[in-house]
Amino acid sequence: MKKQLFITLAAVTAALGSLAFVQAQGNGGQAENQEAPAAQAGELVQPFDFPHEPHVAVNQIDCQYCHFSAERSRSAGVPPLATCMGCHTYVDGEAQAEDIAQIRQFWERGEPIPWDRVYRVADHVYFPHMRHVSAGVECADCHGDVGEDISVIQQVNQPLTMGWCLNCHLEMDASRDCTVCHY
């Protein structure tokens, strides 16, 4: 009797989950009450335009030097101000002198830089950066070539949809089991 009840509850749960998934897909992959990912919204206001180009292309600083948690965490995170100051205590950054001065002011006040989050996946999605890094996925595969002359990554236009992710999983021969990303 308990086994039959369990099977019935599992079937009902699966049916309701499928229905919710299909309805979300009918709305462009977004649940009705869910915000669009910040990267697509285009309304971010950052404290200043962070130039990836001199850091990545000119000085050849690896992404994981600043975004060090990407290899061991779900989130790549925003670099702590101490990482910036490790260089900018000594490097004035002539082309961005005003921005460097602003970074130093945050440091002196003991305040983090109030960056707006750029990428956001839906609440029902689990995206672990560490698994992608350990699988050899390059940062540019998802975030584009940030070494180009762009400001904050908000200009990189990735859809962050299930279809986009599945296409990559197919190309990379990665698991397409639902529980890999949805649990």
Write a concise keyword list for the protein shown above.
mainly alpha, single chain
Structure commentary:
Residues 15-41 have low confidence and may be disordered. Helix 5 (81-88) packs across helix 6 (97-109). With 183 residues, the protein is an all-alpha fold. Helices cover 46% and strands 0% of the residues. It has a domain at 46-78 and 115-181. The two termini are 28 Å apart. The protein is built from ten helices and no strands. The radius of gyration is 20 Å and the shape is elongated. The protein has helices at 2-25, 38-41, 52-58, 63-66, 81-88, 97-109, 129-134, 139-143, 162-171, 178-181.
Order of helices and strands: HHHHHHHHHH
Query: Main sheet?
Result: none
- Beta-strand percentage? under 5%
Mean pLDDT: 77
Q: In terms of quaternary structure, what is this? A: single chain
Taken from the alpha-carbon principal axes, the silhouette is elongated
Distance between the amino and carboxyl termini: 28 Å
Structural class: mainly alpha
Describe, in short, the structure shown.
With 183 residues, the chain is an all-alpha fold.
How is the secondary structure organized here?
Blueprint: H1 2-25, H2 38-41, H3 52-58, H4 63-66, H5 81-88, H6 97-109, H7 129-134, H8 139-143, H9 162-171, H10 178-181
Helix pairs in contact: 5-6
